[in-house]
Amino acid sequence: MISGFKKDISDKIFGFWGHIHITDYNINRSIEATPILKNQDFLLDLDTLKKIHYQRPMEFMGRIIPGKFSFQEIDVNIKSIYPFAMVPAIINSNEEFDGVIIRGLGEDYDWAQLEPYIMEGSKISAPNEILISTRIAERLKVGVGDEVILNIIKNNQQLKRKTKVVGTYRTGLEEYDKKFVIADLSKVQELLMWDSNQVAGYEIILDDIENVATISEYITVEILPTRLFSETIRDKFPNIFEWLDLQDFNGSVILILMILVALINMITSILILIIERSKMIGTLKALGMSNWNIRKIFLYYSGYIIGYGLLIGNILGLGICYLQKVTGFIKLDETNYYLSVAPINIELWTILFLNVAAFIVILIFLILPTYIIAKLEPVKILRFE
């Protein structure tokens, strides 16, 4: 569930913003950006970028070894590159108005990223069409097919443009849904009084984001001209990703607590088994069996109990996960969690690793309580029996 939570929210953010942004160094953090030329020489370099060779400091047990470097090679699979532009504006209907940020996307934009979140209507197909969130639609009291007016102030002039709402979207990310309007790039260029060859920057979509930070740094240093820079979405919006990283810590705490509970239960069980089988232990010792061989009998049986417990636990756990994935019976408050249902992401290798790790760790810790067998004397045990 934690894995699904991180994956679904990350997919929403990347689907809305892409993975890497290329903009001017003098970008205004209040959204309105310094324009750059749409036709750039670096675009050809990005199209042909397939591998990156770089060196990184060598590490040993989490510590960097001074003066030592290792050479690395990673594959780069750029799925798409498209221009964008943004401008703050006032949007008003016949009854209400609201402050928004208009995000202009070009014809190269891959709508497959945003289409899963379109609730009504369709994507943009003309310059005078816009896509608004369901929250903005509720505030403005408009729906698909209604007309609204976009207002901005540029060079001390008020610009008004009538547009048509062709669709509504909902990502569940409150900070995006309450203020972003999706429009055609040409409409934002018109509002900003830019020509058709001026854009705010470029968004890059990668097939694999494992090395996105390294790729972004390489693009800035090796490919882009000096006045442009590359920035990952994680660096641009760090707060939400830091919150997602915190889920890993929560997951680790939960796993540690579960293993501790399992350890306590198994230690208690093996001590009870030893007490119940004390006559058998005394007989085996009297026949000459060594303490270690007797302890192995209990360890083998403990391993059987652990394995049986893991099997039942996996069947129940994965069964509930599958049921949640199909039916979504566990609901969440979307305002607080960005998702309306608890997400599930089943990673078979992770599940296998957790099972094997739990089995080994618990079995190793069970070696200690079996030492009590060495303290048992056959004469006293058999006399007592």
Can you tell me about this structure?
The protein is α+β, with helices and mostly antiparallel strands and 385 residues long. It has 2 domains: 235 residues, no CATH class; 145 residues, no CATH class. It is 45% helix and 26% strand. Strands 5-6-11-8-10-9 form a 6-stranded mixed β-barrel. Helix 1 packs antiparallel against helix 8. The longest helix has 39 residues. It is elongated. It starts with a helix and ends with a helix. The relative contact order is 0.14. It is a multi-pass membrane protein. InterPro entries: ABC3_permease_C (IPR003838), Lipoprotein-release_system (IPR051447). This is Permease. Belongs to the ABC-4 integral membrane protein family. LolC/E subfamily.
Number of strands: 14
Major sheet size, sense and barrel closure:
6 strands, mixed, barrel
Shape: elongated
Strand portion, in percent? Answer: 25-35%
How many domains make up the 3D coordinates? 2
In spatial order, strands of the major sheet run 5-6-11-8-10-9
The number of helical elements comes to 14
User: What integer value in Å does the Rg equal?
Assistant: 30 Å
Unreliable parts: none
**Structural class per helix/strand content?**
alpha+beta
SSE sequence, one letter per element: HEEHEEEEEEHEEHEHEEHEHHHHHHHH
Q: Report how far the terminal alpha carbons are from each other.
A: 52 Å
- Mean model confidence by pLDDT: 87
Q: Helical residue percent?
A: 40-55%
